[in-house]
Amino acid sequence: MLANLLKAHNKRNSIYKIRQPDGSISTNPNIIASTFMTYYQRLYKTTNRIQTSDINSFLKKYAPAPLTPEMKQLIEGDITYEEIQQTIKKLKLNKAPGPDGFSSLYYKKIQEQLTQHLHRLYQHIITGHPLPPEMNEARITVIPKPNKDPLTPKNYRPISLLNTDIKMLATILALRLNKVLTTIIHKDQIGFIPSRQAPDNIRKILNLIIQANKTNTPLCLLALDIEKAFDTLDWQYLFTLLETIGLGSIFIKTLQTYYCTPRAQLNLPTTSPLGYIEIHRGTRQGCPLSPALFALAMEPLARAIRENGDIQGLKVKDKEYKVSLFADDLLLHVTKPLTSLPNLVKILADFAKVSGLTVNPDKSEMLPCNISKHMVKLIEANFGFKIQTDSMQYLGVKLTPNLTTLYKANFPPLIKLLTQDLLAWDKHNISWIGRIHCAKMVVLPKLLYLFRTLPIRIATQDIHNLQSRINNFIWNNKHPRISKQTMYLHKTNGGLSSPNLLKYYWAARMAQITPAHASHNKPLWVEIEDDLIYPYSLQQVLWLRKIPYNCLQHISPLTKEMLQLWQTLRHRHHLISKPSPLTPLINNQDFPPGLSKRTFVWWTNSGVTNLHSLTAHNKPLTTPQILDKFQPPPQEKYRASQLAHFIQQQAKLGDLNIISSTGLETICRQAPLQPGTLSLIYKLINQPPLNNKKLNNMLKWERDLNTTLTTKQWAQCSETANKGSTCVTVRETSIKILHRTYLVPYRLNKLYPTCNPQCYRGCPELGTMLHIWWNCDIVSKFWDSVIHMLSRIFHTQFPKDPLTLLLGKKPPRFTNSGHRLSQHILMAARLIIASNWKKARLPLNSLKTKIICIATNEKLSYMLQNDMEAYDKIWMPWLLHENDPQLFMALRA
């Protein structure tokens, strides 16, 4: 609900008027529907017959190399029960169903009964039998493209809502195809390929711009627009390509069946579903298989460009870089434009002739770097590309011809937009915790994208200013009641996980060091930056005690800036151990024998590249152990002694003569390309100081209650407060108690001496936090009644312990489900105290009403998660206790 409130989807997606072919604008729903219908009928109809000989000729030259038998085995074969079950498990519950109306929840609910039938159906399909016509139907819904004219049908993106059964089959095929995509498709293509991301191409392009400026080489950055790319791909070309690369008869037959007779019904927001559209080309947007198929379809074009010697790319050392792709987003970086561009245009025409994918020159843009104005005008006159002199949009960032203007072109406009969003959201009635969620859901992702894609230094003052605006928004422009340091901490550490922008920036920058450690499929930007510091590599210099001077002579500014930040953060935030297991053995000035790479060639080829490769259970190997593990030839035994001596020396630098790994070092060693790395590193950077693990609110509660809790117990209390209910309002009261944000009389008197420090309820006692919530006679009697209820529900004496009743500490011998129920009831009790803050009476009869409200919200949440069994397990003791048949039927699953 909060996301819908902020994004206002319904208003943006409604279509109230449309422009007719004659230029007139109509608001008539029937005419709007007819206009869209005519447009999509033409779009999905094959217009020009493509010659088979032309396709074969093009693919013979430029198709990727055929799959090996081992690779083919990964995608061929019968569909298994395990594949079907895993696919059902991964179905998302919040997705709209296809035309048959069977949702993901339906398949999850009766998975056991359906799996056998689906297996038989899919086996029937992969042998080439036709699909039932209804199964291959889709419903097309349209979404307006951002920053495009909403009056034109072509500026809407058609999303196909497929039936869940056919979507599951496509998912199984996509998962199989993903296993070989990284082998088939060059690293220039990063769209929808496993372990590849948009920042990979952006950083590669920035390095090329830097090198062009450094060598004063004329460089054209050309962003080509392929018109309606996903919707116009020719099927004959696609299937011929799949056969050429040898994907296998089962896979191809299944795909041909899938694409045999598809049709779709157009569904506009303002009308009922319209007639059917016969589809004869394109890959359906919304199909899990479409991105992989389209990436495959683009690969012959990329190969044709790479292999054409008359198209000149930019060279870094002995490697040439010509093209970068993200699915259909094609960016060329070419030199010698008067020679390269005519040859490029010819290849694009040849590709359009066989694939149906046509480049629109009017929407294609060029950013010239180091090119004279006369040359730019000549290019514009001859090729029709739109010339951008200051910046050019690519993959959500603005590329500039010089690195010095990159920050100004990207960050200030975004910060201004986010500031405006924060001001606009102030008019909404959003809770305190809800405001933190706003910052994390909307503000943070937009900033993180730039942090990840633009590896440049940011203006710290800009980030501090935006951070202040976010904090003011969270506190609704009132004085904060919790310190910033506590707000930023993770919930498990007693904080509220409010985003710390500067630390997120650091985490994004540190996440960029992990791809350098990939054993294969390293991004191309790593190759470029490695080549610039040869004979060193980025993987080596990161873990050296001191960066060698000769490494800095030709280093990329992006690498240099990253290393400077790394040197600052690695010890401050305990990202590196001493000694580091990733300390290199080659090109390390602390290990003189390894300065000559040829000396240790045999060892490097055997995988001995860093200290970790010479350890067992974090302990350094001795010479006999090294000889036994690697079995080197006789001439290498002396090297084994040198290695053993060095690692023993390094181990003595640590406290326990061991070589252990930090969290970041473990990521670099084990999974450098895994998703979620940034979040893991942020958590490492955002850890509380090692010498102060307890926060002020924790220490004050321990003082008031005359007790001491372990860090683990405080973490459990924090988890209970933050996850105890799906309702934010219910959780918020418990979080405020935990963090002592309530302004009790005693605290108000300290702030404003004229305020009465005594209890609100007429007691002569001081209105301290503990008194207002626990010691006051009125509150104490209320808690007695709550304890009596809990004791009857659980058939055991519930402890009258403020640690449990106020802070959420788990009672002894309680099960997890019992603790969950008790906390729901206690949260309702805390709400009653908070909502009757200054009253002399606490209405116990309101407790049942509050509990029913909480139970209803919980039931809806568990229904959405398809986990009503867990709901029943938690709430059944209370329902049985109430002994109300009507309530029992209303709240049971």
From TrEMBL:
Residues 124-399 form the Reverse transcriptase domain. PROSITE patterns: RT_POL. Signal peptide: none annotated. CDD domains: RT_nLTR_like. It comes from the Eukaryota. InterPro entries: DNA/RNA_pol_sf, RT_dom. It holds the Pfam family RVT_1. PANTHER family: REVERSE TRANSCRIPTASE DOMAIN-CONTAINING PROTEIN-RELATED. This is Reverse transcriptase domain-containing protein. It comes from Xenopus tropicalis.
